[in-house]
Every structure is written in C-alpha cells, then in structure tokens.
Amino acid sequence: MRHSFCSYWLVTHDNDTDGLVIQSGHESKEVMWESYFRATTKPKATKFWSIMPPDSVAENVVPFAQAS
Q1: Is residue 60 part of a domain?
Q2: Total domains present in the chain
Q3: Among the four residues 17, 23, 44, 66, which has the most C-beta atoms within 10 Å?
Q4: Is 53 among the domain residues?
Q5: Which of 4, 18, 14, 16 lies closest to 47 in space, CA to CA?
Q6: Where are the alpha helices (DSSP H) in 1-68?
Q7: Which domain does 30 fall in, by range?
Q8: pTM value > 0.70
C-alpha cells in the first residue's frame, strides 16, 4: 500500500518529492525519487485515486452526521 500510495501520489502531484517525503517518512528526496519516479503513469494514477466505496452503506457500518 505504501508503494502504491507513493507512486500514484507522486505522479498526480507534479512530482512533489518534498511533500511526499513529509507524508511517507522517507529519509530523503533522493530515496523517494529513486523508488517512485516513473513507477506509474498519470492515467493509471488518476484511475487509482478514483476508486471509491459503493454508494450503498453496509449493514454493519454506523453512520455519522456530516460535519458542517
């Protein structure tokens, strides 16, 4: 999951290695760049980030009121 998140996040955020280093806890931009740059394509990343749960709510989920 971490590799997927980093790969897809990097390509959809204009290769912002600084922001991704902070989020992921990697040691340096160099490690981030070597590991995740060009690991995927923007169309694949966009498809990944569009994955959402179904609109229907499962019976075992407790609904919370939406914050205003």
Answers
A1: no
A2: 1
A3: 17
A4: no
A5: 4
A6: 2-12, 17-24, 29-36, 42-49
A7: 2-48
A8: no
